Amino acid sequence: MAGKIRTVTGDVDPPGGAVMIHDHIQIDLSETKGPETVLGTTDEADVIADIIHARERHGLTLMTDVTVPGSGRDVRALKRIAESTGVGIVAATGFYWEPIHPAVIEGTIDSLRRAMVREIEVGVDDTRVRCGVIKIGTIKGQPPEPAARVFQAAALASRDTGAAIITHTATPDQAQWQIDQLERGGADLSRVLISHLHNFGDIDALLPHARRGVSFGFDQIGFAKGPTYEDYAALVVKSARAGLLSRTLVASDVARRARLMRHGGTSYATIFSEFQPLLRAHGLDDARLRMLFHDNPVRLLTLAA
Hints:
By secondary structure, the chain is α/β, with parallel strands linked by helices.
């Protein structure tokens, strides 16, 4: 329904509080990344506690789980967690990276499009839990042939449903290929978020993509390896100076149990407890902070007409 956000418990009006665009609440990447990259049944109570903490301390009202089929997505668990925490959760449909989902290997553009549209409009399997965003991505190196079909199918599914597209880039140089494939499929590029582009480390490198209309994510804030909080803050400040703040999305991409508070992490509160004060210290006022932590993610998550 245009103008609404599709959560696992139903369509809702855009909320007034903080919104998170790129995290994982249920995920299993153990096949390729080891046993720590799992958030499953045994972690559910800890996940619930951490989301409630972010709601009570930082005003979190809505978050997006960008886990897709084959990577530990569990929409029944997402619905339970949403009901337990009082925080809306948007689930993702789509296909991406390692391992390539069996449906992709032999699937046509149209069959993949129909699969994504069904999960958005009807629901996942027999759960009647509907997805509200499309997540796709590419592995390191030259994207394999099936990836082009996935991206073009996602472009068509986005057009059919009004759902935004969030991509995973294994390396930032893949952004150009991804945008080209989505455009070839007919996507409205203003409804596309290319993730992990903080890895460019250079705002000038983002300008060609920004001119094509996509948004970009600085979205692994709090990773043990990678840019520091200060590095991320500098990127956001440069983005603001370049007039790109309305295209900038920030997130912490929690995807392993070691980041949960029980294990000593700052968890889903990271971007609020650790990063937001730093941005304020760098001179971002309330209006620009609201753009980052509310306006920009709400714009993408709201279904288009």
